[in-house]
Each structure stands twice: as C-alpha cells, then as structure tokens.
UniProtKB/TrEMBL annotation:
<dbReference type="GO" id="GO:0006307">
    <property type="term" value="P:DNA alkylation repair"/>
</dbReference>
<protein>
    <recommendedName>
        <fullName>DNA-3-methyladenine glycosylase II</fullName>
        <ecNumber>3.2.2.21</ecNumber>
    </recommendedName>
</protein>
<dbReference type="GO" id="GO:0006285">
    <property type="term" value="P:base-excision repair, AP site formation"/>
</dbReference>
<feature type="domain" description="DNA-3-methyladenine glycosylase AlkA N-terminal">
    <location>
        <begin position="9"/>
        <end position="124"/>
    </location>
</feature>
<feature type="domain" description="HhH-GPD">
    <location>
        <begin position="134"/>
        <end position="280"/>
    </location>
</feature>
<keyword id="KW-0227">DNA damage</keyword>
<keyword id="KW-0234">DNA repair</keyword>
<dbReference type="Pfam" id="PF06029">
    <property type="entry name" value="AlkA_N"/>
</dbReference>
<dbReference type="InterPro" id="IPR011257">
    <property type="entry name" value="DNA_glycosylase"/>
</dbReference>
<dbReference type="GO" id="GO:0043916">
    <property type="term" value="F:DNA-7-methylguanine glycosylase activity"/>
</dbReference>
<dbReference type="GO" id="GO:0005737">
    <property type="term" value="C:cytoplasm"/>
</dbReference>
<dbReference type="InterPro" id="IPR051912">
    <property type="entry name" value="Alkylbase_DNA_Glycosylase/TA"/>
</dbReference>
<dbReference type="InterPro" id="IPR010316">
    <property type="entry name" value="AlkA_N"/>
</dbReference>
<dbReference type="InterPro" id="IPR023170">
    <property type="entry name" value="HhH_base_excis_C"/>
</dbReference>
<dbReference type="GO" id="GO:0032993">
    <property type="term" value="C:protein-DNA complex"/>
</dbReference>
<dbReference type="InterPro" id="IPR003265">
    <property type="entry name" value="HhH-GPD_domain"/>
</dbReference>
<dbReference type="GO" id="GO:0032131">
    <property type="term" value="F:alkylated DNA binding"/>
</dbReference>
C-alpha cells in the first residue's frame, strides 16, 4: 500500500498531570523497526482497523497529545482514536492513582517527583503477546531484533511502515526450541479465539495464558498490564522491579514484595512504572 487517502489531525485530551517520559520512552525504546518509529519528536506506528490499516502519528504536548491519523477508510477514525487513547493510557485518573501510591512512604517521593505517570500499553493484544514471548529472557535490543526479522519476512506494507504479523511458522525463529514451543502454543490459542482485548476478563485470560507452556508470571502479568489494561497487574519477578525494591528498602523476594504491594491496589501497574523509573534505562526517557 503506497499511501493512505484520508488524513485527519486531532487533539487527544487527558486529565492532567501526565508525565510523558516513561510513556513515550518505553514505546520508543521497544519500538519494532518497520512497525514503529520516533521521528521529529513524534511516535508513529501502524494500526489494524475494521476497514483497513492505518498509521497514527502521536506528539506529546503539555496539555494534549497531537494526533494525525492516516486512514484507509474514514469510518475507522473512532476505533483509531480509541486504540491510541488506550495505548497512551489517556483515560486514566492520575489523581486517584497518585493519591493511593503516595500513601506509601517509600513510593511517595517517586510519585511527587513524577506525578501522572501512565502505563504504556499496546494497540493490539495479539501483537503484544507475540512480542512478549519474543522478549522472554532476552534484552530489549534482542527482542526488537527478533521482531524486526518477523516484520521483514511477513509484515504487510502500509505506506512506509508495516503491520506486525500475527501468523507465521515458529520454526523460523532463531530462538531456543522451548521458546518456539511457547510461540506455537500462543499462536494456536490466538487462532482459537483467546481474547486479549481491553474488554476481556483479566482473571479468565490469566488462567488461559498460565495453561500455555512457557507462560510464567512475568509474561502473563505483562500481557495483563499492557494488552488488557489491567491497572493492578504486578511483576514482582521482574529484574528491574527487584533492583528498584532493593534500592528503596522494599522486600525483594516476589512473595514478600507482593504482600507489601497490597497497599498499592488497585493501581499496582502504575507502581511498576514508578519502580522501573528508579533505574537508568532508556525506557524512562524520551530521546533528545
């Protein structure tokens, strides 16, 4: 597809405050070449929509996010806006979130330093689940490399970008055999209709995913947080979370940290963002 015929600029509103650094920083640092890009202070990526593919360009501003939607069909404007609002967590209530998290004396300084942190999500649950499996036990750079190879082989061109492939042969992946088995199980579940949309029941989806080979707590909770939009997903086994907990004087074992996190409910996904931000990682900043 050489071009998209319908271009619509919009302003996406949100309830302030909104801290953009980790929100856009995470999307930029994990961007799959050919599907997403950061250019001229704007994040661009492809969208799957009912009447054809699209590209969204999103630029953060202090009081809004400037969006430009290039669409195949103008009937898809509303779902395109909905996908991008979900991606950027623009419908969050930052005051409610920050009030609960700042009641913990160890989290309070983090919240006051960066009020209004949002959870970077996804525009497509199956895409994120595939990428989560590719990211198991490897670096961010390695995960992007695996994903980029998939796009090169199977991505659908959309103007200068591509749609991320949702169907392929796991045997093609340059990963351990166990990871191919996990990917095959996921692709079969997706073909069978497992629901990874924001309207799905998180408890039901967690049970379905835990039943798949190779799906442990990190992968399942990552999908719950970013694909389902569960505001209370928690990743106590994540290395970055463990390092943050140790630096703050929080418990470091998953069981003990989970017990301590009870006071952060129902906003533990946002606590995860604050804990990750204690480390010096590219996901925490927007490139200059």
């Amino acid at each position: 597809m050489d071009s998209l015929p319908y271009v619509v600029p919009l302003r996406l509103s949100f309830t302030p405050p909104l801290f953009p650094d980790n929100l856009f920083g995470h999307l930029i640092a994990t961007a799959v070449p050919g599907v997403e890009e950061w250019r001229d202070n704007t994040y661009r990526r492809t969208l799957r929509l009912p009447h054809g593919p699209a590209i969204a360009a999103l630029t953060p501003h202090p009081d809004h996010v400037a969006a430009v939607f290039a669409l195949t069909d103008p009937r898809d404007l509303a779902p395109a806006v909905a996908q991008c609002r979900f991606l950027l967590d623009l419908d969050a209530d930052p005051v409610a979130v920050d009030t609960v998290l700042s009641s913990d004396p160890l989290l309070k300084p983090l919240v006051h330093k960066a009020p209004g942190r949002r959870v970077p999500r996804t525009v497509n649950g199956p895409e994120f689940a595939i990428r989560a499996v590719l990211g198991q036990q490897v670096s961010t750079a390695a995960a992007r490399t695996h994903a980029a190879r998939l796009v090169q082989r199977h991505g659908t061109p959309v103007a200068d970008l591509h749609l991320f492939p949702l169907s392929f042969d796991p045997a093609e992946l340059a990963v351990p055999t166990s990871r191919r088995t996990t990917m095959a199980a996921l692709l079969t579940a997706l073909e069978s209709g497992v629901d990874l949309t924001p309207t799905a029941d998180p408890a039901h989806v967690r049970a379905e995913l835990h039943a798949l080979p190779g799906f442990g707590p990190w992968t399942v909770e990552s999908i719950a947080m970013r694909a389902l939009g569960d505001p209370d997903a928690f990743l106590p086994t994540d290395l970055g979370i463990k390092l943050a907990a140790a630096s703050l004087g929080l418990p470091v074992t998953p069981a003990a940290l989970t017990r301590r996190s009870e006071g952060w409910r129902p906003w533990r996904s946002y606590a995860v963002q604050h804990l990750w931000a204690t480390g010096d990682h590219e996901v925490n900043r927007i490139p200059t």
